[in-house]
Amino acid sequence: MALGRAPRSNGAEPLQKLALDPHRMLGWLPVAGGALRHALHWASERTGLPVIVIAAAALVTSWRLFSRSLRLAVEVVLAVAILLAATRFGWIAW
């Protein structure tokens, strides 16, 4: 303890608390936006369609996929909840 350090200390700086930093959490958005812009431009060049038409088609397709995925997720959660309840009440034994 000649250096005045605490016992079991390795001399390193103390760890800082992790904070929810929005700049750190959402730092990937500009990169994703640039990649999306590049992909739309590439698809527009290859198909000959305007970028706005390709973007609209991608938006509609992604919305439909999202809504179907959401329905599926809700159905799975309901099925698991029903199975857990039936197991809890003793109606099903695994």
Task: Explain what you see.
- It is a single chain.
- The protein is mostly helical.
- It has a domain at 31-88.
- 65% of the residues lie in helices and 0% in strands.
- The chain has helices at residues 22-25, 29-47, 51-88.
- It is flat and about 60 Å long.
Layout: helices, strands, pairs:
Elements: H1 22-25, H2 29-47, H3 51-88
Structure summarized in a few sentences:
This protein is an all-alpha fold. The protein has helices at residues 22-25, 29-47, 51-88.
Q: How many distinct helices? A: 3
What's the main sheet like?
A: none
Shape: flat
Low-confidence parts: none
Beta-strand level of the residues, as a percent range? under 5%
- Total strands: the figure is 0
Average pLDDT reading: 83
Sketch the topology as an H/E string, one letter per element: HHH
Computed CA radius of gyration, to the nearest angstrom? 26 Å
Helix content: 55-70%
Structural class comes to mainly alpha
The termini sit apart by 59 Å
